[in-house]
Amino acid sequence: MSNSHQTYLQCRHFAGLDGLRAIAIIAVVWHHSAHPTFLPMLLRGFVGVDLFFVLSGFLISTLLIREKKKNGRISLKNFWMRRILRLVPAYYFMLFSLLAAYLIFRPGDPDTKALVEGFPVYALYLSNWIEPGANNLSITWSLATEEQFYLVWPLIESFAAPIAMIVVWAAALIVNQLINFGILDPAIASIFGLAAADHPEILQSTFTPILLGVGLAHLLDSKKTFGTVQAIAGFRGAPLAFAAILLLILNIPTADISGAARFSMHIAMALWLASMILQPAANMTKFLDWRPIAFIGAVSYGMYLYHMWCIHIAKAIIEKLGLPQLYLEFPLALIGTLLASAASYYVLEKRFLALRKKFRP
Predict the structure, then answer these.
(1) Domain segments of the chain: what residues?
(2) Cα 273 to chain centroid, rounded
(3) What pTM was estimated for this model as a whole?
(4) Which of 104, 112, 149, 216 is most buried, by CB atoms within 10 Å?
């Protein structure tokens, strides 16, 4: 049975969302590992990041909306402190560990120079604007994108009037789609002298999935629009239906999925998320809430941080043993990444997560 609006507003934990995180991070590890490519979707594991973005936009906006409704205001200090305690310790642990390892074991190496020179960019979460080119740190563009969202959007939720918020949201979505469809490429080329292939990640990647997550949070929060979303994504079997639609879009046989395919994919992700929220008793929702899968989602942040290095180690082991790389690299890297992230979660991250209760609304 689907959720009523009142049940939705009272819900503090949405079933299946850790499972969606698990799917997202497994897709990312797959994308960066050696793997078979007999289906188009097997080349598109990078869209796991887009799924993370939809989830972030929804969950963060839901927290902010509910805090403002309950208290009349949003404590930006508390929000930012919770985000810092969740994200920064493990990220800085990785950065400083890498810096120390390179300086000790590879002094004078060009890779060490790239890391040292680019360190301020990585430390300040600016790598979606500038890519210093340090080994295995190109993935930090998505972390920078999320941090910038966490910095800017709470200000809009806090201080913008509803109509102003809608205008900002719509304008950002339109600009993102103008980039996605390549319509702004000539203007970018004439102003900045950059061809489409040379765009920084802030342009190559889109904020659209985050914005769709934000929009979904507001639509579900309002009693006027909750029923509309429920009619579209709250029917029996909706989680399975939207998962199937997403798989179909991911299997479109084209080398470039920008434009309509990418936008359709993001909408399907948002509707898939909505269906899980509205159908918590659905078989797919229950499956994605199964403890082993939910655990992968719970440690997915660490998995994202460490997976490139675990892939590097898996590759070295496979080459050393002379084993076939195509089918072994991904499972070996996934196991190593899961072990490393679990250790990080229990040894490091949980200590800081425990401090977040001081900054709850």
Answers:
(1) 5-359
(2) 13
(3) 0.95
(4) 216
